[in-house]
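Case study B.
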Amino acid sequence: MGWFTKKHEQLDEKKSLEEYLQRSHDFKQVSYINQHTNKKFSFSFITTLIDESILQENALPFLLEKSFETIEDIKKIIPIADLQISSDPSEMEQKLFNGYVLLTLETDQKNFAFIAAQKEVVRSITQPEVEFSVIGPKEAFIESLEQNLNLIRKRLPVKELIIEEYTVGTLSKTKVAILHMEGITDPVNVQNVTDRIKNVKFDAITDSSYIVQLISDNKNSPFPQLLDTERPDRVTAILAEGKIAIFVDGSPQALITPTTLVEFFSSFEDYFLNWILSSFFRLIRLFAVAFSILITPIYVATLSYHYELIPKDLMNTLVTSRREIPLPPILEALFLELTIELLREAGARLPTKVGQTIGIVGGIVIGTASVEAGLTSNVLLIIVALAALASFTTPVYKMGNAIRLLRFPFLFFAELWGLLGIVFCFCLLMTHLLRLTSLNRPFLEPIYPPRLTDMKDSLIRLPFRKQTMRPQTLRTLQPLRFTLTKKKKRGDIDE
Amino acid sequence: MGQVVPEKAKVSPFLVFFLVHSMQLGIGVLGFQRIIALTAGYDAWISVIIAGLSIHIILWMMYKILESVDGDIMDAHTFVFGRVVGKLITLPFIVYFSIVAITLIRTYIEVIQVWMFQDMSVFWYSLAFCGLAIYIIFGGFRTVTGVAFFGVILPLYLIFTFFFAIPYADLRNLLPIFDHSIKSLLLASYQMSLTYLGYEILLFIYPYIKDPQKSKKWAHLGVLYSTVLYTALTIITFAYFSEGQLQKNVWATLTMWKVVQMPFVERFEYIGIANWNIIILPNFCIALWCASRITKKVLHIQQKYGVIILSIVILIGINFFKTREQINTLIDYTGKVSFVINYGYIPALFFLMLIVKKVKKK
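Model:
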């Protein structure tokens, strides 16, 4: 009796699922009859998910013309590699929604086959738009996990590259892939990432930035603690370094962890340039960030409290430009900073063509008009515009956003306590960064804790020949990247 | 004895350099020159060196004490005096570090009030400062060390600003050398103790050092660096000011910044004083950390509550020091207490340790 009820339940489960699915418009069930044996068989599938041409060309003709008896025989006559036979109705729902076609025989209700016929709607690979580089590869990730993994596999054709896949999101069932190099990456890190991914509790994960926010060490920090990139070359490089990459299906951005603050200020193009140039550009970028955060607060602090600080000649210029301004420096600065933020936000939300117009209208018209109307001084206008320009040098968009926010607390403290307030706010920022970790590794490394070997690729970048060691902070299993062959002793001139 | 410090909370031995040096460099350096010159005239730079070198002996004793118990001074107290008496003897250190913290923040605010903002609110600024310190200490000892590290690295550029004084300096001010008695030289060395104070934190941070054996040389280097820095500063100050002039300047170091001139900056002391915030912060944090660490070990109050309670105590305590005279008295007494602890109590403990060890062996 036992097996009978069980079978009965299974059939019931199948029936109730089918009834449930009938309610959706795109669920279809079609029956056919084999020409030789007159066996009746039927397909069930979700039309929006499958590629019907696969069914028409690779499955249906064979099933109609070649003879078969049991469900096992089908494997032999259909030329599709991914064909699974099962008798467990609980698999049905998941398979149907993954783009499989359910094949049942009328004579055998218990067993059924799943035929893979996924429809791949994939856009083609395009140029990187967020992390554009003048030289170097021009491929960027797209929304398909398969395609993205293909891009990485092609660049790292070794068996050590391990790809683990997990499904997260109770509703979205998003596929998340964790990539690392076996024998290089610290297994503790990998385990840590895996645990965090497995513990993600959310219903619909639609992009990798959801994962960033869900698995970060400190979720209340404006600073991103996982680096996101759309460049396959960057992911390849960090995998070789011993870091971990996370890919999320449906997201053109891969995540890199653990990461450090200085990594956010290195553009991947730095590696395509000579080390002297790239070090110079990195220092320029660092200066730009400091400038962009501090210059307006310093303006407010000096003009509100410490005008003695400014030499007489410079003071003349400042006084002349501010003579007609009715507002105190802080309001003047806030007005301009907010204008810039508005322009940026409007530019980001509007379609490209309109956005450009807004930028020009805003930048030129509002700027000039507010100076002429005597609302702001032209010195401050220059300062704010330069600061905005400097903030765009941050190569990683998410870090740029964090930096946009930073100047406002600095402005507040500058108004409160002048230069002292700026230093105080800097101490706050420093402490926050000191406390941040990325995958339990210090975020400020190699500045603090100071590690000289990791300095080689941080604020400056030394030549590749000097980069013999993988970053210490990653605690890799193979700290040595390559062994340097000793050069012969240099001869004298013209020898 | 105590809880074992987890490996991930410990810091590398070379960071002891920054901990010791940043704790030493504080408010004393802003105006010590006048006081020692009052006692030993322009020979006082010798006192600076003497005081600096004498610390190495104390440091050596400290390491001996700590090594023999392989813990902090509280373990040493338990070892020498037993559980109850040991705890009683450790308790005053809470008061000591709280007073050090109060001295630091109050004097710094005094400097701000005199040089930058006359009506700077003592309460609000110290409240913000305490909040920041709590935020740092909640990050654990590694964050405290990080602040100490940046407290040494970031203000390094200030050293160069003293070069602006060199064109106006005259080394002949220092001549003749050795025209003061040994007694006045030693007295001036004693007066330096406030400026040099701070290395006693080693007694408390010792269990947090990875491989403490290796940290020895870094601790000594940290002290040596302070000595070199102070001596250089003393000599520049003496060469820049005449003896009579110096007596009129309470904060000689700050006055020297007045001479700094750059195309875009005129009154450099504003920048210097604001920057001093980064130097004072680790001092305050380490003192508060030590005090709260003792409350944890002796009174068994969790350190996070200890920090908050002590901050409130400091915030209340700071209100008792309003006038310049009161602050001076505070500085004087802190210096004296620190002198007694470093040059009186530690050698005493060192010899007691030796005796107790011998007795216990038998």
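The radius of gyration of chain A is 30 Å. The remaining cases will be described in the next quarterly update.
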